[in-house]
Every structure is written in C-alpha cells, then in structure tokens.
Write a structure and sequence with these properties.
By secondary structure, the protein is of the alpha/beta class. The chain has 17 helices and 36 strands.
C-alpha cells in the first residue's frame, strides 16, 4: 500500500507577525528552494582515499551557504535531490563493513537532520547497497522481494522522502511515497504593504533514472520496475493539485537531454519541464552546475533552456553540481491572486552558489557537522588503510612517459571490464564491437618531484587506488572509428617534442606544456602502435594494428574513458560529447576499486606489463633526455625499459629531478 502523504506544518521566519484567517488577494511573498544534490556521503571536506582534508567539498561547507541563504530568505525549504547515501569510503563503511544499526541513521542523514532538511528525493546510487539496506536507513517498510515482511521499521531521516516512478513488482505501488505536501506558514506582504502571515502548501514529487534497473540489476531484477518520468508526472501532479498543493516542485534526479523522449530516458527533465503544473525543478545526477552562463554543455544550449537565468521551458530549475560544492537557490517570487499562489517568473531568481570565494579560498566549514560524526569519521580512516588486495609489483608513473604501464594498465583493464559487462547487460546492439580503454598518467611531475603515482608492492588499500586514479571522473564510453582512434592517439602524442635525429645537441623528449593527464594510452594485447617522435605533431602514429591487422579508418570501436575526455576535455578531435554511448553511473575510481577487490592478487604479468605502444626506432646523434626523480633506474629496469639510463642525479634545475636519457634506437 502506498505510504500516506505527509503534512508537516511549520512557521517559516514569521516571528510575531499577525496571523490572518484568509490570505488577501495581492499578497506577495518570496519562497526560497534550497537544493543539495549528489552529496555522495561527503559530509566532511575530507578525501578518504588520499587521507587528507579537501576544502573543496563537503556538506559541512554547504551548511555555511545554507545558513547564509536562510538569513537572506526567511521563507525557505531545504530539499535534497538524491545520491546522498553512496560515494565515499564513509558510506561503504557504514553499509558494508560495520553496518549502521537499526536505531541510528547513517552519517549523511544525521547531518541532514541536523541541518533541518525539509524533504528529499532518491537518486540511482541510493540503490547501490540493495533494497534491504535502503529500506532500513530510510525508515521504510518496502513490500518487495528481498525485504523481510517482518523487518522492523528503523530510524530513518527526520524528513519525508519522495519517489514516484519506481514501483514494487509485488504490489504495483510506488516504493516510497510518490509525493508529499508540505504545509508552511510564511512571512508575506499584504496588498496594503503591511506584513502578514500566510499559508502555502508546497508539493514535492521525486523521480529517479529508470536506468537503475540495469545499473543495479543484481539488486533490483524482478523486485521493482520503473516508469518514465513524464508519464509519472502526468499521473501524479493532478493528484497533488487536487489535494491542495499550491506549488509543485519536482525533485528529479536527472539532467537535461534533447534526444526524442522515451520512457527509459536517463535525463528526462527537458520533457518534465513541459508537463503542466510543474512550478520548479531541482535537478542533478549529471554533476553539473546550472545555471551557468559560461557553460559549454550541449544540453544547456537546447532550445528553451536559458543557462544564464536558470530556466528550462520557462520553469525555474537548478542543479547544484556535486559533493556539496554548491547550493542551489531558487527565489520564487509569489503573488496570491485570491484563489492561488502564482509564480512571478520575471522576478524569480536562480543561482548555484559555490563554496569557493573569489580569492580561490573556501568558505568556513560548520564545525557542528564534524563533531556530529567524529566517531564514524575516525572509524572510516582506519578502514581505508586496510588492504583491498595485494600486488607483487610496484605501480608507479615515474617512467610512464617512456613506456612504463605499471600504473596505467590496471585502470584500463578495470574500465574495459566494466564497459564489456555494461554492453552485455544493457546495450546488446553494441555487443559485436571491440572494447578498448584509454588511461593516462595523472601524476607525472608537473607539481614537483613528489608528484608521481607510487604504489609499492604488497598490500593495496583504498587510498592506493586513489593514487592510481587521481580524479573523481565518471566512466564514459565513446563510439569511434579507426580514423577517430588514430586522431585520438595523435593528439596524445603531442606529449612529446619533435626530435631531430641529425642534431648532436641534447634534446628534451617531453613537452612540458602538454599535461600528462592528456597523454592517453592503450594497454591492450590486441592493439599495437608506434609513436614516431621525429615526425610533426598530427603525423606520429604509425603501424596501428588491431589483432595483427592494420586498423581500417572505418573500423568501429567502443573506447572506455572518462567524462572529461568524452565531453571534449583536452580538445581531442572528434570528442565533444556527441560520440558518448555510455555515461556510467559509477566513477572510474570506484570501478577500479571494485576490480581490484575482485582480482584480489595483482601481478605484473597480468596487470602491469602489456604495452600497446613503443617509440618508432631511430638513431640520434645527440642524447634524448627527460626528467624524473633521482635513483629510480631500478624501477625502469623492472618495467623492462632497458633503453633508459640516469645520466645525472641532479638535472641542475633546482627542483630535485635527475636527468635521464632514452636510447630511441632500441
């Protein structure tokens, strides 16, 4: 049976204002909708993988923005868009390692309770730990297979959770309450200019991406089903209005997509905005900031989308990026016409307020959140130091520029495995395409002699996985042809300067102005290619073969990469977001961690020695040199780089680097 509609009553910022039995026509008010989204359990500004503070993220800093916004807008509702429960080692610890008890909410809900969240939606990642866990921590009583009928109702959050388009396969009823109507007393201004209080009923309705059925198939198959966002909205919004909702706010965990609508659409809010009766949208999932006048995101430039004012088909909409980096603020300007509250769209404002100041510092954190979850935080730190696997070799990027793949191949293997399985489960039309993967050395000395990946042989812990995959990118896959694959590799080869073999002068191999994280490489036994550094940029990839045969320009591949590259990061030819086939709900780092856990034991032979590329052999009169930390030659030898030698322990630059040479003739 569907959960009952919650009708909380709270006076917002009215103080001792006089109350009236009826709101007079012409009364005006401002109601702020404050959005958090995709918090991914980042309560604190702390990176559990690097074991260091990170002031760029965390709800503890968003809390400061919330306090400021509440002071500015006494009438406000704080609403969360979902993907709150999963995403950090803290979340994993509480769900999998030391499960939170029935009498306690997880840390992220504790923090949200403290902040006085008024309501929340559900994202795709809420399902990552299974229905039994979700049932417990949300204080629900799911009538679905996989949840015991006699399971106790546990301590959930102190706010209503809404989700309209995910249903129990057993009952045909929504898994959560599809909507909730929040009754609030607000401070307003009467038609005579005097302060009054008024009553307003705000309906909130939640939506999750239907793709959860594929992404978490092992948890959800046969237990729940999904309906399209548009169809669901058309069904429930008239009910909400009939039950007295003055305003309808859609909490929709998805982004914008201008492709023709279909019920399984992942980012359906372009079409949700066209459903009659939607007054405002809180969106998310895409980890983007909206509004953003400077954004180049294709979906923000669709007809009817105003990326400066923050409207979609005229409906105010906000997306507060991720991890607490922003707070969405919609200032709804309202006027009562005698029968209903009407949104004045011309005066409504939409912002995504960031935690970073103009001087590039960050706003102060709210210390109450750190104190609130201190025990969980310390326990998580102890947890991430525990190994998730073992390795018989050292994975480092000291010599990645000259062919050491020890810190690259494992990432490529994890991404390839993920995409292959994703295609089998969800994209059978692509099953015949070869799957490749691109990865790069994120840390290769740009920030100094200590700026390298270095995971020693032995136990591999969660924080080591973060050393191998530095950035919190999402995993994407793109469809490219052979010509596009070669163009991709040509761009990557700009990492190297052009070498003149006839010159007797010492020549620098690495182009320091080309970032190492743009030096994408394949590490597949099926692919072989050479980089001829004597040729000009754009004409360096030679002998590109797949399974022993030359790659044809029209041959088609699926290539796993990250959202940055797939969306145009690095200005790689042909990669502008238009070739993306898979926008995975998982980060590349989490994919890597899962892969290591499954593999358990990493060996150089299986996970760190497959080189797809070599330099095209050429004899040079002068030395070809590069820079790396001193006395690392044994690392190069262990990687099979016999052509590398250290020629000076100090390169003379004053930064602690040694000077190495590579014999390109070998």
């Amino acid at each position: 049976m569907r959960a009952s509609i919650v009708l909380p009553i709270l006076l917002i910022g009215c103080g001792s204002l006089p109350q009236h039995g009826a709101t007079p026509a012409g009364t005006e008010a401002t109601l702020a909708l404050l959005e958090t989204t995709d918090l991914h359990a980042n309560v604190l500004g702390y990176d559990y993988y690097k074991l260091t503070a990170d002031p760029s993220m965390g709800l503890e800093r968003t809390a400061t923005l919330i306090r400021q916004a509440r002071a500015e807008f006494p009438n406000n509702l704080l609403l969360d868009n979902g993907d709150a429960l999963q995403g950090t080692a803290l979340a994993d610890y509480q769900a999998l390692v030391s499960p939170v008890g029935c009498d306690q909410p997880p840390a992220i809900y504790k923090a949200m309770n403290l902040l006085g969240v008024d309501g929340a939606g559900i994202g795709n990642h809420e399902f990552n730990y299974g229905l039994a866990y979700l049932n417990q921590v949300t204080g629900s009583h799911f009538d679905v297979d996989g949840v015991a009928a006699d399971a106790p109702r546990c301590a959930g959050p102190a706010f209503p959770i809404v989700l309209a388009n995910i249903y129990s396969a057993r009952t045909g009823q929504p898994l959560f309450a599809p909507y909730s109507i929040l009754t609030r007393r607000i401070a307003a201004t009467g038609p005579d200019g005097k302060p009054v209080t008024a009553t307003i009923k705000v309906g909130i309705i939640g939506f999750a991406p239907p793709g959860i059925l594929s992404w978490d198939k092992h948890w959800l198959d046969g237990k729940v089903y999904a309906e399209g966002v548009r169809e669901t909205a058309l069904k429930y919004i008239p009910q909400m209005r009939a039950r007295g909702a003055d305003l309808v706010v859609a909490i929709s965990h998805g982004g914008l997509d201008g492709d023709p609508y279909k019920p399984g659409m992942e980012n359906a809010n372009y079409y949700l905005a066209q459903v009659p009766g939607v007054d405002a949208m809180l969106i998310g999932h895409a980890h983007q900031q909206f509004p953003d006048a400077a954004s180049t995101v294709d979906s923000f430039n669709l007809p009817g989308v105003d990326k400066a004012r923050g409207t979609v088909q005229g409906v105010p909409a906000v997306m507060a990026s991720l991890w607490g980096k922003h707070l969405g603020v919609i200032g709804l300007r309202l006027k009562y016409d005698g029968k209903a509250w009407v949104v004045d769209k011309s005066r409504t404002t939409v912002e995504a307020r960031g935690t970073r100041n103009a001087d590039r510092t960050y706003i102060a954190a709210d210390p109450a959140l750190g104190a609130l979850i201190a025990d969980e935080h310390e326990a998580t730190i102890r947890y991430v130091k525990a190994p998730i696997g073992t390795s018989d070799f050292r994975m480092s990027s000291y010599f990645a520029d000259v062919g050491d793949v020890s810190a690259i191949e494992l990432v490529n293997q994890a991404q390839t495995d993920y995409v292959t399985n994703y295609v089998k489960a969800s994209l059978p039309d692509y099953a015949g395409l070869p799957v490749l993967s691109m990865a790069s050395p994120f840390k290769a000395g740009a920030a100094g002699v200590g700026d390298y990946t270095d995971v020693k042989a032995g136990g591999v812990a969660l924080n080591n996985a973060a050393d191998l995959y530095l950035y919190p990118n999402a995993l994407h896959a793109v469809k490219v042809d052979g010509a596009g694959l070669k163009a991709w590799l040509e761009k990557s080869a700009e990492r190297f300067n052009r070498i003149d073999p006839a010159s007797a002068a010492q020549q620098e191999l690495v182009n320091s102005s080309f970032a190492s994280f743009n030096f994408d490489m394949l590490t597949s036994a099926d692919v072989r290619y050479r980089i001829d550094v004597t040729r000009p940029a754009g004409d360096r990839i030679v002998s590109l073969h797949y399974k022993g045969a030359p790659v044809a320009p029209s041959q088609v591949f699926l290539v796993a990469t990250n959202n940055y590259r797939a969306s145009g990061g690095g200005n790689f030819p042909g990669l502008d977001g238009g070739k993306t086939v898979i926008s995975a709900p998982d980060s590349s780092r989490d994919v890597l961690i899962s892969y290591i856990k499954l593999a358990k034991t990493l060996t150089r032979a299986r996970h760190g020695s497959t080189r797809s590329w070599r330099f095209a052999p050429v004899a040079t009169k002068g030395a070809v040199v590069f820079h790396a930390p001193p006395n690392m030659i044994e690392v190069a030898k262990d990687a099979g780089l016999t052509s590398v030698s250290q020629i000076k322990p100090d390169d003379g630059g004053g930064k602690g680097f040694a000077l190495y040479a590579i014999d390109l003739s070998k």
